[in-house]
Amino acid sequence: MLNAALRAVRPVAVRSARRSTPSTAFRALSTTTPRFSGPAPPSLFGEGAKSGEIPSDEQQATGLERFQLLGEMEGVDAFDLEPLDSSRVGTLENPVKVFSLDTSRIVGCTGSPAESHELHWFTVKKEKNRRCPECGSVYALDFQGVEHHDAHH
Questions:
Q1: Model's pTM, two decimal places?
Q2: How far is residue 112's CA from residue 94's CA, in Å, rounded to a whole number?
Q3: Cis, peptide link before residue 22, omega less than 30° from 0
Q4: Is there a contact between 95 and 132 (Cβ–Cβ < 8 Å)?
Q5: What is the three-class DSSP state of 68?
Q6: Phi/psi zone of residue 148: left (φ > 0), alpha (ψ -120 to 50 degrees), beta?
């Protein structure tokens, strides 16, 4: 299939290469976006250090690490690391709510009161509550994300 596509484009590319002016045929094969397509999203890449200097964490952090670092600089906790409410056992009528921006989240239960049994990990999904196999506590996902956000996968 790739060979057929290349065969279809090859005559146009050869003709365009002979011309001194660029052709629009190459634009269709380009993988870069035009600069006039709107503002760029905020970058999660640091600017790096100048030549001969050792970069700081702020300069070299990328991705989620940079997101967390920028949040700490602004005084915002980027990731919720607080434990869930373990003062009570969740029931089907009143489950323990688990905040999530995704349609599923991995939860660890240590029982109620805390540390009353070994740690059990399980996945809580938006569609269905989960019960801890050891203590019977029920957990429900408190979904706060964008619906169908992962539809492009």
A1: 0.52
A2: 15
A3: no
A4: no
A5: helix
A6: left
Nearest to 120 by CA among 84, 94, 78: 84
Q: Which two tokens stand for residue 30?
A: 């380009």
**For residue 56, what are its two tokens?**
């700081």
Q: With 0-12 CB in 10 A as exposed, 13-18 as middle and 19+ as buried, what is 142?
A: middle
How many angstroms from the chain centroid is the CA of residue 153? 12
Question: Going by DSSP bridges, is the β-strand pair 96-100/104-109 parallel, antiparallel, or unpaired?
Answer: unpaired
The pLDDT of residue 6: 45
Tokens standing for residue 11: 């005559």
Q: How far is CA 11 from CA 5, 6, 20, 28, 148, in A?
A: 11, 9, 16, 14, 42
Using DSSP, state whether 45 is helix, strand or coil: strand
- Which pLDDT value is given to residue 2? 47
Q: Which 3 state secondary structure label does DSSP give 11?
A: helix
Helix (H) or strand (E) holding 58: helix 57-60
Distance (Å, rounded) from C-alpha 47 to C-alpha 59? 6
- Confidence at residue 1, expressed as pLDDT on a 0 to 100 scale: 46
Contact 95, 142 (CB under 8 A): no
Supply 44's token pair.
């999660």
